[in-house]
Design brief:
Length: 258
Amino acid sequence: MIRHARLAPTTLGKTLAMLCSATLGAAVLAAPAQAATIGFENGYGAVAHGETYQESGFSLYFDANKTGADGSSGVGAFVDGSDPWACDMACPVNNSSMYYGAFNDSVVWITAEDGNPFRMLGLDASFIGNTTELGGYPAVSGLLRAQGFRADGTSSFLDLALDGPSSAGFEFGGYDFGAFSQLEFMEVALFGFVCNVSGNCTAFNTNQGQFAIDNLNLEAGASADVPEPATALLFGLGIAGLAASARRRRSNSLAIRA
């Protein structure tokens, strides 16, 4: 069973976050792989800490990322986009299918059910805000970070800018992961940052790092012959990644350090 490390609070400037998504030299994959799309059509209702969801050969673990969290800790919900009453926050308005909404600074951990490495190619995503503050969100209201962990404990991450609301509200956008999609991981964590008008983005200390995801594009069964890098490959500025493996719980929190 995968054991998930707790991620530590972190703050990031918007400009730096954009640079972190710059192109990285591609890793060459020697064997074909099977693609899968997770659309959450079988999901239903509220989600609590520790629950899992399986689809298309992948497992998603929903994590409150807080000490003492248990099954009473709400972390999100499967939302029916065709039902205007399905979400009581400022959820995206342009998706009439099912999708997953992550609330309260929670984390979504993705693994392949067969335990093999996989690649993440892209997804649809949106920020989720507060309905009483729609007029106050900046042009980039949040970031969605995808952080992948390898078997040797190294990691890489990609930050996606989540737009502020249009006149209609927040909306899903499609994201292609570019060079990040060519990297293999044993596990990928998805978590949100909330950004202020100054461009500073914060995770894990506001309960406002909220996001919606849909149509996760994953690829399983990639070649095991791809060499693992000796150090974390991080986009843009070579920022150090999480210091320990997400597959082995440590007693101390893992830190993102600049």
